[in-house]
Amino acid sequence: MDILSNPPRLTIIGHVRSPLLQREDAPKQGSEGAPEAWLELDAYYAPALAGLAPGQRVVVLTWLHEGDRTVLQCHPRGDKTRPKRGVFATRSPDRPNPIGLHDVEILEIQTPARLRVAPLEAIDGTPVVDIKITDRP
């Protein structure tokens, strides 16, 4: 199977609603002052939230839709004084498959399928791909 001509399908389960409106507004990592944000999931996925609770930590996987998929090397943290590295050795959103990994805390859960989380460095409108538990309340 030729992965480039027949790529696997990725299902978007929701979107980020954030005060960050542009890629340039977003910190490089959540720990650098990223705000609270909402994950608005399609109501179909509401049953998948069973067992999650405020105070719990999860990893949110996003599709960094503004990432440049042609970039294979970049300056770490965008600092041109540092030598280029391969994107697999950085957290750059520019990469062959721009999947973001965001370690966040659930602050609130609303029905049918909304989660308020923090800190989240993804910009408004970023597609959500999955949520993975990292601890139990």
Q: For the terminal residues, how far apart are their CA atoms?
A: 42 Å
What share of the residues lie within helices?
under 10%
Q: How would you state the average pLDDT, rounded?
A: 92
Number of helices: 0
Strand order of the largest sheet: 1-2-7-6-3-8
Task: Output the CATH class name.
Answer: Mainly Beta
Give me the CATH fold name: Elongation Factor Tu (Ef-tu), domain 3
Please describe what this structure looks like.
The model has no long low-confidence stretch (mean pLDDT 92). This protein has no helices and eight strands. The strands form two sheets. The protein has a six-stranded antiparallel barrel with strand order 1-2-7-6-3-8. A two-stranded antiparallel ribbon has the order 4-5. The protein is mainly β and 137 residues long. The protein has strands at 14-17, 37-41, 57-63, 73-74, 85-86, 99-110, 114-118, 127-133. It has a single domain (14-133), classed as Beta Barrel (Elongation Factor Tu (Ef-tu), domain 3).
